[in-house]
């Protein structure tokens, strides 16, 4: 029956044929309690079935992952809680992906050039990796070699300053993103209430503060994550300490950010303590999703097709506690949430017309402290 469905999809909708493939779901975790590293399981988007999670590679607190554009390599930042590792500070690790079995083979690791790396990103060419170091407030740029291994950092900047809230006692670089053309890098500076803007020299592998060097958020907002709209003209900044999303117009020619709108990630009647963690957009740029730790919900927001502004749609419980990270599967039909405190991964179906979420099956259990979710096609 499944073969007939795949044949029918291929015959009637050729563009959807590639979407029928199985995927490996990789989960980055913390290893502070009983976790051991990066876990994986298979997911079939046709049936919605998953396999039991298994350990793909042992690694020390690989709490954020990034996949190379060729889908052959996976990168993990390792948070060692400030401990010295191999004579260096915290590290970024490179792995080769076995696209048939999902197993990961360790390639190498390099110093993150700081403490507490929070997020990493790989550029569209697959030649550079960007990392933000949260505890030391620094950003570093690394070359990616043809064999997938990482070189030592060629670009580096130590940020400075602080903010008015207790967690803003120093600079705290968090979310990172490359501009669509690869000429700029954005860094969400949680400690100084700024979105930093850097120029990138791809040939030299250097980072240089832009002019202007940052967008200044309101005091105490604590930008945590940044994401470009598929149109390349808009950036969404998630503010951790204010539970708000700032919509920013992106000036691609000279690297500028201008505020367009601000929207809360929580409903007006919410009472309690909560802090957003992650942003994701669907590939068409019609919907934006944000996770709320404390409220333990996913905020669903629709995106205006003309202005790219946001309108809240709903706030959906995540089926667990502390939804640190989540991601949309490559077909755009499902959303996977890693509930860090509950040690599970919950799955939701996405309504293609409204963006609304519906729980799908039972959460996947026995995934220790899940902190990141990425997908790689099975071959």
Summarize the structure.
The chain has 379 residues and is mainly β.
Which structural traits does this protein have?
mainly beta; four-stranded antiparallel β-sheet; disordered N terminus; 28 strands; 49% strand; 379 residues; 3% helix
Structure description:
- By secondary structure, the chain is mainly beta.
- Helices cover 3% and strands 49% of the residues.
- The longest helix has 11 residues.
- The radius of gyration is 20 Å and the shape is globular.
State the helical fraction: under 10%
Strand runs, count: 28
Mean pLDDT: 93
Number of helices: 1
Largest sheet: 4 strands, antiparallel
Structural class comes to mainly beta
Distance between the termini: 21 Å
Itemize the secondary structure elements and their pairings.
Blueprint: H1 2-12, E1 23-29, E2 37-43, E3 54-58, E4 62-67, E5 73-78, E6 91-97, E7 104-111, E8 117-122, E9 128-133, E10 138-143, E11 155-158, E12 173-178, E13 184-189, E14 194-201, E15 206-216, E16 223-228, E17 234-239, E18 244-251, E19 256-264, E20 275-281, E21 287-293, E22 297-303, E23 310-317, E24 323-328, E25 334-339, E26 344-350, E27 357-359, E28 370-377
Antiparallel strand pairs: 1-2, 1-28, 2-3, 4-5, 5-6, 6-7, 8-9, 9-10, 10-11, 12-13, 13-14, 14-15, 16-17, 17-18, 18-19, 20-21, 21-22, 22-23, 24-25, 25-26, 26-27
